[in-house]
Amino acid sequence: MDKQTYVRTGEGAFDDLIPRVHSFLEKDRLDLTIDGRSVSGFRSPDARSIWIRDHSDMLRGGRYFGFDLTSAIEHFAETQSASGRIFDYFTSFPEKLPSERENWNKYVRVPVEADVEYRFVKAAYLAWQATGNDAWIARLLPHLERALEYVFAHPWYWDARHGLVKRPYTIDTWDFAYTAGSHNWLQFQVDDRTFWGIMHGDNSGYAEACEILARLHSRLESPDRARYWAQRATSIRVNLNRTCWNGRFYTHFVKLSEVDIPGVDEFAQLSLSNPMAINRGATTHEQAVEILREYRRRRETSAAFAEWFSIDPPFPAGSFGDAKLKPGVYVNGGIMPLVGGELARAAFAHGFETYGVDILRRYYDLISRRGETYLWYQPDGRPADVESSTSPEAEPTDGWGSTAMLWALIEGLAGVEDRGCGFDRVRISPRWAAADVEEAEVRVCYPVSGSSVCYKYRCDAQMLRLHVDRAPSQLELHLMLPAEHAIAGATINGRNAEWNLQQIEHTHYANLEADGNDGIALELRWGERGHDDS
Fold this sequence. Notes:
By secondary structure, the chain is of the alpha+beta class. It has two domains: about 5-415, Alpha/alpha barrel (Glycosyltransferase); about 425-525, Immunoglobulin-like. The protein has 13 helices and 24 strands. The protein starts with 5 loop residues before the first strand and ends in a 7-residue tail after the last strand.
């Protein structure tokens, strides 16, 4: 049990989500033998290959189970070019059946993509947190830095005038570009007819990646490099918000080339990287609130079964060269649990806790009907299928969206955030009051290293009790208060404790800190509303 991650509340939407996602990931592992060595990673449901984009995001949930977290990252580093470029994916399986039969090792970089290198950095960071291996990340650090510097110096990917990453005109972070009909299918190449612009999701990703490098250098006691990367992160965030923020959300594509797609208003298109920008730390709280409100407005006005749009409104049919890419299909307006999970995680952090709970419950209802989950759904609720997809497969074990939902459950609702490495610095923010859950037991574990955090929570009419087993050396408590209660007093291990109150939108939190020891027992006693003494 010490190596098992679980949530116990008595509600299936929360308790059963973790084992269900685990079962999906068991089917999403891809094991290859390359140069006589085993390489293992997470695959997307539509291809037998290890893409850094899928693998990186799926690590947010996969690291809580007993999987190999490092070999795929090491292989991406080993195959990095001298310039710093990272491959999109690799595989040993034939991909274009029946015409392709060769089982050679294949490595691919899609030229129109600008997001690959920041995903490499994030994957390494997530694996490092779980393994707790400083020596491993120190060996990788030169690869991580070279990857970012490649993007910041390459004329295809860096726009010096705006101080931002650019790319060809794609649908958000996806890998095929608009050509105004000059190409007869999906266009993955850069050529003299490429239309350029700035896609906000690239830049929120690179800002986070720079911040990650700053944290790693600080951990490894390289203060000058830490300052350098922190400054790069700040610069990108400032430039992103100056260039792409339109007052309600991030404009889908800020054009650098003259191009006009009939029937498309980029300023009205809400694209999938918006909630990701919140979770990557690119937004202010006020911006996060505007994005969350926009999604709720579109849920109320749309006929779609969920507001987890890949992009809304979508592009007209055929805009990107494939007849299958009709509105409401795949990344052109399909409904993606990946977006829902990101949205829920953002909602929990910014005062929309009941909205986050609602998303988790709706997702559980969706997957529990048949024990299946898909990368995307049509707006009427039908899942992806081979006939409507541009991808060769449509497997019902999507790990990309399911791990995003799991991430929202663990870090958002259960509220266990590793803010260091191996849970040596943790923030616990139980938000069970938003789900009307009075009692909960939570264990979050990294099986690869054995590091874990466990707590028991109870909230009744008299007090809120929280017992944390194996408290980390640095523990922050960020406790959501039930709407009808105010604090009369607080104790930690029987001693009076100080707290401060914080209001996030309409939700009140009590913030406390505790010294690391074998465990803590906290009690918040309720008093009458209006007599909350801190």
